[in-house]
Amino acid sequence: MMTLDQAEKGQRIEIVKIPDEKIRVQAIRLGIFEGSKLLCSEKLPGGPVILQNRMQEIAIGRNLARSIEVKPAERGEKI
Amino acid sequence: MSMNHNPVEGMHIPEGAKKIVLAGNPNVGKSVFFNYLTGMYVDVSNFPGTTVDISTGKLGEDVVMDTPGVYGVSSFNDEESVARDIILYADVIVNVVDAVHMERDLFLTQQIIDMGKPVVVALNMMDDVVRNGLEIDVKKLSEELGVEIIPTTATRGEGLLEVKEAISRAKPGNRIAEVKELIDSVIGQVDTESEALLLLEEDENIIERHNILESKQKREHIYKLRRTRVDGIVERCVSQKNSGATLRSKIGKLTLNPLTGIPILIGALYIMYLVIGVFVAQTVVGITEEVIMGGYYNDFIMNTLGTLLSQESFIGKVMVGEFGLFTMVPIYILGLLLPLVVGFYFILSVLEDSGYLPRIAALVDRVLMFFGLNGRAIIPIILGFGCVTVAVITTRLLGSKRERFIATMLLGLAIPCSAQLGVIMGIIAPLGLGYLMLYTGVIFLVFAVTGTVLNKILPGKSTDLLIDLPPLRIPRVGNVLKKTYNKSVMFLKEATPLFIIGALLITVMQYTGALESISDGIAPFTTGFLKLPAETSQAFIMGIVRRDFGAAGLNDLVSRGLMSSSQIIVALVAITLFVPCIASIMVIFKERSIKESIMIWLSSFVLAFLVAGVLAQIIV
């Protein structure tokens, strides 16, 4: 199993599971949900992971990123 | 059943008037629409915590209401609850959408459509669409959503008239079929379709208002349906023509990468220091306080009132004495505070409008984690350097009670406000860089240790960062100036009465000898432990009324040559860490529980003297 904090900068990932229900419903409004494919556009050392969907950028705290399960998404898909 | 649950009813809306409500995500430019539609100014802030006040205006016979920027109609925080109540009982919604961020913004649009409300969509920031190499099929978008879509560039006034005209044509849009079925299944339990939707979406308030016992457990399901639909619409209506990597999105990326982001942040803070700490606090205040107010104005008062009143009488002291209502009060408020406050709010407005604040939050998230805070806490902290009172109110945007307590404690203890900072800078500057670093180092150490300790000993866990990073924008001068003006006026309106009360109090205490007695009483402590001149205790007492009073008192002692450089630093450390001003204390008591407030008050009092005393033992 891979978690979001392990994603690398520039990697495309697909969200597999967001365990916290409250976070899940808030994230869905910002375009992050189980099954969505996003680009890890930046990773601050020990800090937040920045996910990008088209022009939209979201910062996710490192602790939260550790709880979110992801898998690599194939390249070539629209971000 | 009537709409007796409607909390908006208390807002005195004339009978027969339609409620036209502006809704949209944060930073989409709603305020420009509001100003245009109502022809009256509204104070706007782009950050949650500062937009809870609702602006209302008239458009012909109808009422226009602004709402805080939200990502959806629900109650995850105060702003959302406020926006929800207003949207819920609106007659027409003008939904302002950031055309570049439709995958985010249309979530709210579709939710409003699902509520069954008549909607007009203003597709704003069309200039950015071109700049980013995007192409939007507006006609198709309109067909998909089933409502009128008007492309606008509000900052240039493009499309505003068309939106105004379209309000009368607003109509309900295309709902998600399954959501409509669900609404029909519960409509009997509530008054309106909008309420039915929120009931399904597990909105606690609606459930409570209607005494409904079982939760429908449909929120996540509906959110997913909506997200899928929105993503599909965006997929069909938006295409990327060229790479679109504009200069601004490149700069946006640079602000996040620590290698470039930290120097940019330091650069930004340095510019802030140059503007407020050097230009305003020294150059401008030098003219306004010393020349204009302290010179011309003071001479004028002394030559008129001063000759009429005996300088030794009580009334003479109250009017034109050292802390007089016609001497110190206007000289300080207009000469010192006003320029500082204007400078600070100007910088803050630029930061807000540029969209840089959330990026700072992401950048400092890791550091603030040590203190049990997340990056969002940087906003109250930066605000604290302007006014601790305002900053305490914005701690509301933090996710848990625990975080709010930590942030409030740190604000009350270790963040000097702009008024105090101005005086402090004026005192330290002549001492040289070494003393400045010593002072900054001590304050920072206290901040860091207190935060870390609180994080360790307080039970529970803090919330994590989950924040939308808006694109960087060049702020509009007009908007920045309006905001600066409004916030400064508001600040002065609140500060002036307190300043007058403080001045009166001190004059009375001085005249009756109370000031001297207290000062004498704690003098052994001041001279013994803190190794400061006995008169310093007066400055401490004044510091409770207003923080800069204390600093100003010290300034007086310094100018009389009563303190050595080391003593000055000790006194400044004490005055900085010392309890916040009366206004902040009152706000802390309002925002936190009595127990927490007393703890914050007492511990900053004890810590201030403890740290200053220890420092005195080392350096004096």
What does the model show?
Chain B: One of its GO terms (molecular function) is GTP binding. Chain B: Its main location: membrane. The complex is a heterodimer of chains A (79) and B (620). Chain A contains two helices and six strands. Chain A is α+β, with helices and mostly antiparallel strands and 79 residues long. Chain A is globular. Chain A has a six-stranded antiparallel β-sheet. In chain A, a hairpin with a 5-residue loop joins strand 3 and strand 4. Chain A has one domain: Roll (SH3 type barrels). With 620 residues, chain B is of the alpha/beta class. Chain B has a domain of 234 residues: Rossmann fold. Chain B is 63% helix and 7% strand. Chain B is built from 28 helices and nine strands. A six-stranded mixed β-sheet of chain B has the order 2-3-1-4-5-7, with helices on both faces. The longest helix of chain B has 51 residues. Chain B is elongated. The relative contact order of chain B is 0.07. Chains A and B meet through helix 1, strand 5 and helix 2 of A and helix 3, helix 10, helix 11, helix 15 and strand 9 of B. Strand 5 of chain A pairs antiparallel with strand 9 of chain B, so a sheet runs across the interface.
